[in-house]
Amino acid sequence: MTESNKIHNVNTVLIVLSCIASFILPFELFLFSYGVLGPLHYLTEIGWLHKKNYFTKGKNDFIYLVIACTILVYWNFNSPKNYLLLAHLTFITIIAAIAFVFIKDWLYRIILLIMAIICTTALGKMNNYFTWIAIFLPTIIHVFIFTWMFMLYGALKEKSKAGLISVLVLIVCAISIFVFQPQNLFYTVGNYTQKSYYMFADLNRKLVELFNMTEFTKETDVFTTNAGFVVMRFIAFAYTYHYLNWFSKTSVIKWHQVPKKTLYITLGLWLSSIAFYAWDYNLGLKVLFFLSFLHVFLEFPLNAVSFTGVGKEIGGLLGRK
To answer: Using 50, 70 and 90 to split pLDDT, how confident is the model at 320?
Structure first.
């Protein structure tokens, strides 16, 4: 068995284990994964992306992504009069990331960005535009859809059956969470857990609306209803495996191959972030909020590479057939 197939098989096991754990203690699993695995993922991925020049054609393209993220984080704590600006900025940043990957000439880049800005006028009138771009994209789309595409690209590129099985298992496990809804797995979500998860609750409510499961009549429905538990299992599963996928491919991605000084700084920042979460989870969320969003924005170019890579690989397979 090749090293690559071993990694794919390990990932398949991690997917199943993440799914099982999400059925048992979904809220606690998420809080642990987000507070412990999350910061280490942010720090190591940003360092790895920097070594790869963020997969863009320009050396300093990432500066725009950092500035956009900074503005977005500021707006999250100081809401602008037009709340749609949060979605507009994210949408324009995605278009900018695509331009940074495929276009080197700044004239064409600027033209594309102007077109993106014009498009926001029409997009802002669409139903659920804000929900999809400002809420789903940096959260569940980032951790589930983008991860799935990254895995699919790798499996197709390697022509790995084990990799394709891993990709399929991820989808099957996600579907199983919505198909199998055991009532006897309910448990009482403690006050500390509810308080710690409060800032994420809007994501749950929007997902419940998306799947047309029910309507929450009060805030605590997130922690007490069947729909609340089902959606939480999916969120916990998606986030937990998103982080585990990154760490399981260390030998392939080689994010750990950095100077010792950088490694020690990374470990120090990671332990500090865990201390913040342990002291006060909501404090940890506020302190790490910029870092969590920054890794999402800096990953946009890689997401563009993954999507086009999948298209090229599928196109190549169809061409050969």
So the answer is: low
